Amino acid sequence: MGDKTLHDSHARMPNDDFPPEQTRGRGESLGADRRTKEIREKILSSVQYIAAIPPAASKALDILMDPDVDLPKVIPCLEFDPGLTSNLLRLVNSPYFGFQRDITSVREACIRLGIRRVRDLVVASVVGPIVRQSIKGYSLESCALWEHSVATAIASEKLSGALGIQMPFATFTSAILHDVGKIVMGTFVEIGSGPIMRLSREQGLDFNKAEQQILGTDHAEVGAALLHEWSFPQIIVDVVRWHHDPEEAPEPSISLDIVHCADGIAIMSGIGIGQDGLRYRISDDVSKRLGVSTKIYERVIFETLTMMTKMKDIFSLTSI
């Protein structure tokens, strides 16, 4: 995909591109629906203009995303990239893992942590710079989206532990990536924020539902399209796509349920939320399906906040 970035010509629209809300006749409604479809197509086509993951990191992720990959294949792809090596060692020596002495090589890190955890850390080191930007459409200051992403990933792990569930493949990675669509949607939401917020408030809709009605899509669908563009595994694409609407997913998924609840926990913790943050609800059905009680939610919120404080310097978190 090269090193393209999101150009203004593809990201910006005049205000009159937005369909009028609610009070319109049949002819006006058809015209508004057509404009909404055009907006949707413009947004989804914008994913191709987001900078690609660096080639070395992309190659490493291709290998790491194979559930059956073994260490002899993983170690060389990390050792020959100085950026990946330094980021991995910085993260593995953080308080999060609590090793008694410093780990000084990629080989030792892979042996100590295992491939699953190494994959999680590589994704975090690669995605971090992309999602650290401020996103005005969601009123997210610089690093706020990154902080929320990290909090959701930690909450997914803490929630799994509290429930006695072994996290399925790539759950932590899906949690890190769940809101990546906001980097594409930001400009569109900024222009349409008035109608979106008004619709959300007046009809009691979750923010993403209001996004869908005004823009024809939401950050979850756009995030899934972006990850598909980046060739991430379908299991991760699906979690990102349905993380606000797990009941609408084509198939049930423990990973999806965990990330959905973990996202809500990060929001309740007040970490990295923007103007949309207080307009989401955790599904009662998902909470019941997982067996998450109020007491468990309270425990995981506390554990997530505690761990985020410890991880502040490691993940370059600014407001924890």
TrEMBL record:
Domain of life from the UniProt record: Bacteria
One Pfam family of this chain: HDOD
Regions of compositional bias (Basic and acidic residues) in chain numbering: 1-15, 23-33
Span list, region Disordered: 1-33
Residue stretches making up the HDOD domain: 50-246
The protein, known as: HDOD domain-containing protein
Organism: Eiseniibacteriota bacterium
